[in-house]
Amino acid sequence: MTSLFVHTADSGPITRAAEQMHMTTAATCAALRRLEKQLDVQLFIRSTRQLRITAEGERFLVYCREALLNLEAGKESIYALKGK
Fold it and tell me: Do the beta carbons of residue 16 and residue 68 sit within 8 Å?
């Protein structure tokens, strides 16, 4: 869900993020709602015309980006061990 959150924050509308992640809009909305429920915070302000990230969402986004970068570095480390 973290990568979906970051992707949504970067891409703008949920429909665009859903398309780029090869998900339905409904599944994307549901996943973001589950994340918000898990964190007990609203990450996005949604309206029919716009999607805006909240202050809490901006704060969480910093940590999500760092976590994803660390995961990618871990993958690259494993690939290096395998000689790929």
Answer: no
Does residue 7 contact residue 40 with C-beta atoms inside 8 Å?
A: no
Domain boundaries, position 42: 2-82
| 53 bridge partner residues | 44
The one-letter amino acid code at 31 reads: A
- Residue 46 forms beta bridges with which residues? 51
Alpha-carbon torsion angle 19, 62, 30, 44, nearest 10: -100
Which of 16-20, 63-67, 80-84 comes out lowest in average pLDDT? Answer: 80-84
Instruction: Count the domains in the chain.
Output: 1
Cα(6)–Cα(35) distance, integer angstroms: 12
